[in-house]
Amino acid sequence: VCLTCCSRDVMVKINHICHKSSVKFFAGDVFGYHGYMFADLGEHEFVEEKTKVPKASPGVEDGPDTKKARVDPSETTMVKKRLVFCPLKEALAVDWSGEKAAAALKRTAPDYFLLQ
């Protein structure tokens, strides 16, 4: 479900229904130079492709005679990952006065508070 130009109450209500039903939810809007996007993908599993990193042999010292393992960029491994997204109501209910929020506050764009 994708929403735009909706009130906060409508977005929270529709997201709640989508989250209960395991339906992916996206919401966003733009106000001149400012905008936002929110995604609730519920429990989302995906596969990430990683380049293989050679492991150093134990007991081998660095030196001019030591051969270094070469990394073949075409050699990759697939890593399965899982993310759990929070509902919109939970994301909007963050308590910014706590100690834990102080670190997150530094990483949060000022636009977040402008859109609130």
From TrEMBL:
Region (Disordered): 52-73
A GO term for molecular function: ubiquitin-like modifier activating enzyme activity
Basic and acidic residues bias (residue ranges): 64-73
Gene3D superfamilies from the UniProt entry: NAD(P)-binding Rossmann-like Domain
Top-level taxon: Eukaryota
InterPro entries xrefs: Ubiquitin-activating_enz
Coiled coil: none
Secretion signal span: none
Protein name as annotated: SUMO-activating enzyme subunit 1
